[in-house]
Write a structure and sequence with these properties.
Two copies of one chain form a homodimer. Chain A is about 25% helix and about 45% strand. By secondary structure, chain A is an alpha+beta fold. In chain A, strands 2-1-6-5-4-3-7 form a seven-stranded mixed sheet. In chain A, a hairpin with a 2-residue loop joins strand 4 (about 80-95) and strand 5. Chain A is globular.
């Protein structure tokens, strides 16, 4: 693991920390706030631009009372100024009185901006079956 | 649309041409054949390395007798030496006597290598509902 890969994984972890904390402020700090960033939530329409992405997180956070995440990083790749991470997500959440557990697979792309790796693309898709990944870790 | 964005979209189109043609030779020519490339087929396990990715395409092609694709490009982003494309896929295919139509959302990452944009990451996920995208085009 190179120091740069570690920094990217730290940025990835901060994204999931923001998600688990249901914190829009933390979410704002991990994304690059540009009109070309994109987000593909499972089952949602494709979102482009920070405004739409930001609104989607607000909506998710407003409709969720509790979230617990287990993230298993599968791979990280760092190129010049751009990096991406593949990981699995186990998401236990409560909203409107219902408790759910879902499994997803994600591709997160980061851009190095003023010395910080910021999220510019998040694509998460549902996985049909539970993940048994020994490398999984709890984000906290 | 910049000339570089056009080149990336051409590489993206070549990937879908290879897929529709069920041609392993064409698929070999659009990917960067490195041990760190990755592929997330809908519902499959995460694949890492050209060998595993190549084998997956062979398996898909061997089990498919016909494929017809409609690809709707939603967005392209080019950074220094790395680019990615978001697109929707409508896949009509026949395998083992069954005819199916599926809808998917993809993130494809390309790396500029010796003047050519080569695929290094493919993440496709099922979409629950049909896509009505006027920008959709038939790959042929």
């Amino acid at each position: 693991m190179t120091p740069e890969e570690e920094k990217v994984l730290e940025a990835n972890k901060n994204f999931y920390r923001a998600l688990q904390a249901l914190s829009i402020e933390e979410m704002e700090s991990v994304w690059l706030q540009e009109e070309w960033v994109r987000c593909l939530h499972p089952g949602w329409e494709f979102l482009e631009g920070w405004e739409a992405v930001h609104e989607s997180w607000q909506q998710i956070f407003e409709n969720t009372t509790f979230m617990r995440l287990t993230v298993g990083v599968q791979a990280v790749r760092v190129e010049k100024g751009i990096a991406w991470v593949c990981c699995t997500e186990k998401i236990s959440s409560a909203s409107e009185g219902r408790f759910e557990t879902a499994f997803a697979q994600a591709t997160n792309i980061f851009k190095l901006y003023n010395g910080r790796w910021l999220l510019v693309h998040h694509h998460a898709s549902h996985l049909p079956a539970p993940i048994t990944n020994p490398a999984a870790e709890i984000v906290q």
